[in-house]
Amino acid sequence: MKEFIPILKRTQLFSGVGEEEIGAMLNCLQAKLCIYIKGEYVLRQGEHLDKILVLVGGKLHIQRDDYWGNRSIINMISVGEMFGEAYVAPESGTLMNDVLAVEDSAVIFFDVKRIITVCSAACRFHSIVVQNLFFAISEKNRKLVQKLTFMSKRTTREKLIAYLSEEAKRHNSNEFCIPFNRQQLADFLSVDRSAMSNELCKMRDEGLICFEKNRFGLL
Amino acid sequence: MKEFIPILKRTQLFSGVGEEEIGAMLNCLQAKLCIYIKGEYVLRQGEHLDKILVLVGGKLHIQRDDYWGNRSIINMISVGEMFGEAYVAPESGTLMNDVLAVEDSAVIFFDVKRIITVCSAACRFHSIVVQNLFFAISEKNRKLVQKLTFMSKRTTREKLIAYLSEEAKRHNSNEFCIPFNRQQLADFLSVDRSAMSNELCKMRDEGLICFEKNRFGLL
DNA sequence: ACAAATCGGTTGTATTTACAACAGAAAGAG
DNA sequence: CTCTTTCTGTTGTAAATACAACCGATTTGT
Description:
Structural class of chain A: alpha+beta
Shape of chain A: globular
Strand content of chain A: 15-25%
Order of helices and strands of chain A: HHEEEEEEEEHHHEHHEE
Oligomer: homodimer
């Protein structure tokens, strides 16, 4: 697990904590490393979760499939991001979504109780991690609201514009790559892939956007 | 402000804290009481927010109107619930939504910095409030994900079923009242009111549900 | 290099939705 | 009580979407 410490150091959870301290905390937080291959489930809907996970390699999707096989991608987890902070509260129930590895992935699990109850050994940086966790969950909250704002658009075109505008703002550029292929983008925006593809091409023909594979540009 | 202490005592934020302690903390947290009449905005999109608010009377909607006048209600705040926890992080930017009083409302604002930095006066219950805040934001996170799961349904009917099922589960009963009128429910689910009304009546005629005003039953 | 699988675009049709307009019922104001 | 406003249901039409089916291009595995 040692080899992932430099990656952990750059995560939001361990922001402001040195590599030596992280090494020391791995025991304190009962860290466990798990490897998943592409297509494997990390967690399944209905499971009980008492750990927080930090992705140190690969890519995950937080998603849910309904009775009719419609998949919706709630969120995407990239290297350095975490998942499970929303389930730290005592009576938070079971997991509402699946967590799927969409690439070969490496995940480190941390014991939640060890994080939110300050350890008697008083590792000096524990309180920093707690505050980091707080800010992280707060940020994820804002991102969920943001997703809700473009999910609440009525038409596919409006959803696309809202999403692409947001990505452009996030990248500080009118050109950017999105982390989805067409099917995944459709699942993320909860629309039909072919209808979306159709709309994208119309928007391109109208001179609103340009794109090639995952690279998009706003005009 | 003293008269609201019994209400504050029953809120999630002050869970486990006695009335005397709450009284003492009002200063420590620089509490400010504000009154709003129905239809008045508590906060507007774009504002900078460095306070957490707790609703002690009335009802609020977290909402957003787009260019074309389509309103979407992101969330509803009832007495005892709070808003603004997602903006406590230092670089969380400005408010993405409006906060509207849909009834005459009483709101108490608390200084965020005072909450997340433990005060030197060491008020004994401060750490409890911090943990409560943590659990609250974590719970709100789960609720947002839940809303995303039924917002991601394709048809109005599916959205209605997902929403009503959730409410039934929450009330532990097949009969329950919803906190919205038709227009508000449509705004909450991001669908057209008349189309939704139509769909509701179809579902009633098919024997799936029954309703009268805000009272719904699943059959 | 070849076969298989994945991906993205296109088209047509049936379904669903948005929008506007209207009417009766209920609630609220004076 | 009466007038006004709000709320809810209804209808018709134009627009948008879902779904299925297909094809060519690209990628992947062997």
